[in-house]
């Protein structure tokens, strides 16, 4: 079937909840229907005269339509590509540009660890859609491949941050700036997630605890990484490395990663997403393999607390993005745990002040 005759509406499956544990994320996606391909995609192939001979809805995605393309080149050879179409207007543009630039940066460093991106842009059919194309091919085992990416990557400025906005799902990350301080970059990144969470996490203590996390815990855990002669290398990170963003080549059995929202940060940040029990990557085996290649940064004794801190953005993102998410309770418990570890007196004072304000509001209500 050619691109001209493919149907655009067949068997596109609905969203998949990330709340349930993903016990086997390396399942080959299924071809579930036909998909119409716009001319703007065909024009973006690297070889002129390329013809789409098959286009199937492929796998499942909450935020986009994902398509497997089989194309024929002028010399009659064929190749498979992966197409993602997001219909979210201006947000789609940011998501596609951010992921394209993330993929490009990762592929330049570790070509065996991510698909090669070819193009992104407006889908070109009159709607505000964006697209990008990925070549389907495999790279290396997950922990080893991620560690290799972290070790071999080099920030173009020598600083932390990124040159464009990238998106964690629908959340536009605040990482498009450069700074010598990882604590400063992460503070802005987490501060944005916390500000978005206020309307989702219906927890009276969230405001006070969120302030303590940013003002007390972040500097306590992250400033020492670059103090006392400690040097922290800005590493290119995936940004959302969990089961659903990994895949496996059916022939080689090698794992690779997709759906990046990258920036240059502390390499341990990526493993914060491996902490969540809802992910298979929470298995200690993955962390052990990673640590065997890249030991914890100094002070090494803070590794687990840093990992808990880094998990906050991923769990807040889940709580915001997934209707009925249970991660709100996890976020609250983890934030309280961090405050109890590093600023217990401030936490006690904040909770006491909150109780006083509750009492005052009751008194005012009674007078009224």
Automatic annotation (TrEMBL):
Domain of life, source organism: Eukaryota
Query: Which GO-annotated molecular functions does the record name?
Result: protein-ribulosamine 3-kinase activity
Which principal EC class is assigned to this enzyme?
Answer: transferase
Stored InterPro entries: Fructo-/Ketosamine-3-kinase, Kinase-like_dom_sf
Membrane spanning segments where?
none
Q: Which PANTHER family match?
A: FRUCTOSAMINE 3 KINASE-RELATED PROTEIN, PROTEIN-RIBULOSAMINE 3-KINASE
Q: What name does the UniProt record give this protein?
A: protein-ribulosamine 3-kinase
Give the species this sequence originates from: Lojkania enalia
